[in-house]
Amino acid sequence: MSASTKNIPSPDLLKSIVALCKRRGFIYPGSEIYGGFANTYSFGPYGVELKKNVKDLWWKHFVHLREDMVGLDGPILLHPKAWKASGHLESFNDAMIDCKECKARFRADHLLSEALQRDVDHLTPEEMSALVQEEKVACPKCGAHHFTEARFFNLMFSTQMSKTGNEIAYLRPETAQAIFLDFKNVIDTMRVKPPFGIAQIGKAFRNEITPGNFIFRVIEFEQMEIEYFLRPEQWEKSFEEWLSAMWGWCRLIGLRKERLSEQEHPKEKLSHYSKRTVDLVYDFPFGTSELYGLAYRTDFDLTQHAQHSGQPLHYANPETKEHLVPHVIEPTFGVERTLLALLCDAYEEETLESGEKRTVLHLDPKIAPVKVALFPLMKKEPLVNEARSLLPHLQRLGLVEYDESGAIGKRYRRQDELGTPFCVTVDFETLEQGTVTLRDRDSMQQIRLPKEQLVAHLLEKLR
Ligand code: ATP
After folding, report:
1. How far apart are CA 407 and CA 410, in angstroms?
2. Is the pLDDT assigned to residue 238 strictly greater than 80?
3. How far apart are CA 99 and CA 104, in angstroms?
4. Quick one: which of 51, 78, 280, 309 could link to 82 by a disulfide (CB 3.0–4.6 Å)?
5. CB contact set of 231 (below 8 Å; sequence gap of 6+)
């Protein structure tokens, strides 16, 4: 399947999502009281729930439910030699170019590919500079044709280590390397044998030249990564299996299939460690762009770290005595990009039959931040007391929001914007007959249910 543009939502969708995220406590701009700190974000009370639900589900799906996986939580700061061995010091670069008139900074490959409508990211900075001149590329900000030379810029953030005498350390730009550094520990302490995988969820940092598009490209983000170790002859089959597992994950979290496609990296565009890479791309409001990646990293990383550390990194088969340096398939999933794609798919502004407008997030109940909202019809006894008595039972399902303030319609609208799949209302019939009203977010239909059946009924729906 190739990338398509037919399902790209309107650019206005991004604006609406940014506004909703701020208004409803999902995502705030970073350091706002100091005037903001570009391309950093805080995940507010609902954002952190959504993020946590995605990460927990990923862990359950790829670690707990598989016998061939173990987990790891490695450090963000790795020995500086690790980045030399991994090739990041030398090759983790993007070419940047500045407009001499308005001082705007661009990634040279992005500037050129937008101007020429073709891929150029296999070119050297010198070749890109020459092409900018030849094709008379104009600055998208001010229209001038006056650029600096394109030059490589390393994307790793560096920091000083006081204890080791001003030695520079790097904040990891990918979680993967922490896994390779602990490969020997895992082999020595666990009963694993190839094929097996090590999974990790954690922060990564990249000093991006042109961050932006809300949380799509940020300088600090989270990755959910797997390094899957296998015999070299198994890589092609395993690659296909992981590709289909990645599609399965997209289905599980409810991403729309028609906005997803695969993009194979051409040979000349492959990263220094990869023999094959396929991206799962998504039709974001700003264009079709990488959501997830799948790479065949060969034995590049283990071999490099073995050479640079002097430690053998292999699997010794106790029966055959064979020493195998496993090859690696790496499926990688960005947490922020997952959230953005989920929000793009879920967001809807509806006009109801009454003419009233409602904004709703159709999030899959499995990942919705609030599972159930609980309301007394009015802020009056004994309704409040009766509603509160249901709270501990419902809390078994996950986060429950109790709300007694304002008109019931307004309370429903607020929950629709949060993506809460179910609202439970306690009214006078509850007091007389023991039934509650259960409202479904998507259909807005309401049914009455004996309160004793509520938890079992919802457990089924939230599964
Ligand atoms: P891009 O081409 O968009 O820069 P990449 O190919 O460099 O991405 P990978 O190195 O494959 O990205 O990183 C693995 C995953 O981490 C990506 O698929 C994406 O989901 C996520 N990711 C990478 N860079 C960023 C970023 N700056 N902000 C948010 N998520 C990111």
Report:
1. 5
2. yes
3. 5
4. 78
5. 194, 195, 324, 326, 327
Please work out whether the CB of residue 332 comes within 6 Å of at least one atom of ligand 1. yes
- Is pTM beyond 0.70 here? yes
Percent of the chain with pLDDT over 90: 84
Q: How far is the CA of 186 from the centre of ligand 1 (A)?
A: 26
The CATH classification of domain 370-461, taken from the options 1.20.1440.230, 3.40.50.800, 3.40.225.10, 3.30.360.10: 3.40.50.800
Verify whether ligand 1 is closer than 6 Å to residue 292 (CB atom): yes
On whether the CB atoms of residues 208 and 244 are closer than 8 A, the answer is: no
- Residue of the nearest CA to atom 20 in ligand 1? 334
pLDDT digits (tens, 9 = 90+) for 265-321: 988 878 878 899 999 999 999 999 999 999 999 999 999 999 999 999 999 999 999
- CA 334 to centroid of ligand 1, rounded, Å: 7
Residue for token digits 């899959």? 364
For ligand 1, the distance from its centroid to the CA atom of residue 360, given in whole angstroms, is 29
Asked whether the predicted pLDDT for residue 437 surpasses 80, the reply is yes
| 242, 248, 249, 253 alpha-carbon torsion, rounded to 10° | 170
